[in-house]
Design brief:
The complex is a heterodimer of chains A (about 230) and B (about 270). With about 230 residues, chain A is of the alpha+beta class. Chain A contains 6 helices and 10 strands; from the N terminus they run αββββααββββααββα. A 5-stranded antiparallel beta sheet of chain A has the order 8-1-2-9-10. In chain A, α4 runs antiparallel to α5 (about 175-190) and α5 packs across α6 (about 220-230). Chain A is globular. By secondary structure, chain B is an alpha+beta fold. Chain B has one domain: Aminohydrolase, N-terminal nucleophile (Ntn) domain (Glutamine Phosphoribosylpyrophosphate, subunit 1, domain 1), CATH 3.60.20.10. Helices cover about 35% and strands about 25% of the residues of chain B. Chain B has helices at about 5, 15-20, 90-115, 120-130, 135-140, 180-190, 200-215, 245-260; strands at about 40-45, 45-50, 55-60, 65, 70, 75-80, 85, 90, 145-150, 155-160, 170, 175, 230-235, 240. In chain B, the strands form 3 sheets. A 5-stranded antiparallel beta sheet of chain B has the order 12-2-3-13-14, with helices on one face. Chain B has a 5-stranded antiparallel beta sheet with strand order 6-7-9-10-11. In chain B, α3 (about 90-115) packs across α4, α6 packs antiparallel against α7 (about 200-215) and α7 (about 200-215) crosses α8 (about 245-260). Chain B is globular and about 65 Å long. Chain B starts with a helix and ends in a 10-residue tail after the last helix. The chains are: A alpha+beta (about 230), B alpha+beta (about 270). At the A-B interface, β3, α2 and α3 of A face α2 and α3 of B.
Chain lengths: ~230, ~270
């Protein structure tokens, strides 16, 4: 009888992590930026129909990079979780933290279970607070780790140069056009050459504190994005 | 951890999700013998009327429990999404819960599919929810909502009425449901014209509620001492808008002033 090859757990996890990371790095980046009236999501996404940014609940937004079918599956599960919870209790009882925890556990379980391949996705879950100081932004990676981020964050594609650009240029209390402009310039710094990301291939949405409706999420149409950038 | 069911491929309907995942939370899940339940709160009269560019819905504020007034300022007109609203008549507890389910149903579909349901689609979903309540209706706990929406494709206000079996019929001009609806409908029939402005349509609706309150004990008229007035909602191309209480009060005060001289209200020409 032949012995199966022994693979150490370290090696196994490393292989799975490398696999997931490679898949995620193939796509384009998504950035979230806090601005004066809320949180803006900016993604480079030529498709108008397949969104990377979505609404989960009244004050909770979602952005993702990686494999579309995988993050779409997580997005729908998140909407279901939020709607069931809001219906069972109250709209105020749906929190970004609970959602981020649910995602983290799901991603973590899939990553470490032997059967499935790890999800090649990274997610942002952002919750709008009463004031900028109460805003919460979570970054979740393929292995289920959660990081609490402040001010700005970027994921997917080649993130290091984009992060460096943000570090050098971000300031608090930007207005919306400035925040979109900053994110667009930052997303253009994803290689050795600086690109100018065309406005029509940007997908932009905000969680806007100044909206009177309960649902604070709003997509910014192409024309308004072009206006903000001109 | 996200439940396994949430990650499976399923429909975009929240009601279906709830039926699979937490059926006990559906308003229609209870099958207890209701029989002659005492102490059940009932909501009463709702009227709706279209005008060029939109639709108006108004409801009185009274909830009754047998011969007792259960609440003087109940809200019976609810926005269900940006371009639609529901007015409820019948068993208040089930009706409010059904409206809440319907609100989440519309929002859930919108978020999952990335687009809003058509007006007819919304009305059909509501009809299905009402049909689901048939068992309760047979036991005396009926819910009869009135659905009004602004149709963005057609550019008109639309009104849908239902019966307890979920039969849906669209009303072009005006409609009323609830215990005082016979009187309200008769009143609106004589007051309604299809070229009224928004304010005039609201006036006609409040007149109809006044007439309903005049002849139906379960319908509440304007309460001058407590300053409680009918709740009025308007839906136009700009979306749902609840009329501010001060504006409704102004309309009601005008009507009451006129009724001091003519208690039966305005009279229509004979021919």
């Amino acid at each position: 009888m032949t012995q199966p090859f022994y693979v150490s757990p370290e090696q196994l996890m490393k292989d799975r992590a490398d696999f997931a990371r490679k898949g995620i790095a193939r796509g384009r980046s998504v950035a979230v930026v806090q601005y004066r009236d809320g949180i803006v999501f900016v993604a480079e996404n030529p498709s108008r129909a397949l969104h990377k940014i979505s609404e989960i609940y009244d004050r909770i937004g979602f952005a993702a990079v990686g494999r579309y079918n995988e993050f779409e599956n997580l997005r729908i599960a998140g909407v279901r979780l939020a709607d069931v919870r809001g219906y069972s209790y109250d709209r105020r009882d749906v929190t970004g933290r609970a959602l981020a925890n649910a995602y983290a556990q799901t991603l973590g379980t899939i990553f470490s279970s032997g059967g499935e391949k790890p999800y090649e996705v990274e997610l942002f879950v952002a919750e709008l607070g009463e004031s900028a100081a109460d805003d919460q932004m979570y970054r979740l990676t393929y292995d289920g780790s959660v990081a609490d981020v402040q001010g700005w964050a970027v994921m997917g594609g080649t993130t290091e140069p984009v992060e460096t650009w943000f570090e050098q240029h971000y300031e608090a209390d930007l207005d919306l056009p400035a925040a979109i402009g900053l994110a667009r310039t930052a997303l253009g710094h994803d290689g050795t050459d600086t690109r100018e990301v065309p406005p029509e291939s940007l997908e932009v949405a905000v969680l806007d504190r100044t909206r009177t409706q309960l649902r604070k999420f709003k997509r910014i149409p192409d024309a308004a994005v072009a206006d903000a950038l001109s | 951890m996200l439940p396994e069911a949430f990650r499976s491929v399923g429909s975009s309907s929240f009601a279906d999700l709830l039926a699979q995942h937490a059926p006990e939370q559906l308003p229609t899940s209870r099958t207890a013998e209701a029989g002659a339940l005492a102490g059940v709160t009932h909501g009463t009269t709702i009227v709706a009327a279209t005008f060029p560019g939109g639709v108006v819905m108004a409801g009185d504020r009274r909830a009754t429990m047998g011969n007792v007034i259960a609440q003087r300022d109940i809200q019976k007109v609810f926005p269900t999404d940006e371009y639609s609203c529901v007015g409820i008549a019948g068993t208040a507890g089930i009706a409010v819960e059904m409206t809440r389910l319907f609100q989440v149903e519309l929002e859930h579909y919108e978020k999952i599919e990335g687009m809003v349901l058509s007006t007819d689609g919304k009305a059909n979903r509501l009809a299905a929810l009402i049909r689901g309540n048939l068992g309760m209706a047979m036991q005396g706990l009926a819910v009869v909502p009135l659905f009004a929406a602004y149709d963005l494709h057609l550019g008109v206000g639309r009104i849908f009425a239902f019966d307890v079996t979920g039969n849906k019929n669209e009303e072009r001009a005006f409609h009323s449901v609830g215990s005082g609806s016979l009187f309200a409908r008769g009143s609106l029939k004589k007051l309604y014209r299809d070229d009224l402005t928004e304010r005039e349509t609201v006036t006609a609706a409040v007149q109809a509620l006044y007439d309903a309150a005049d002849d139906d004990t379960a319908t509440g008229g304007p309460d001058l001492a407590r300053r409680i007035f009918p709740m009025v909602a308007v839906i136009t191309a700009d979306g749902f808008r609840a009329w501010p209480e001060a504006d409704t009060a102004a309309v009601a005060d005008e009507i009451i002033a006129a009724r001091l001289h003519a208690p039966d209200g305005p009279s229509a020409p004979l021919i």
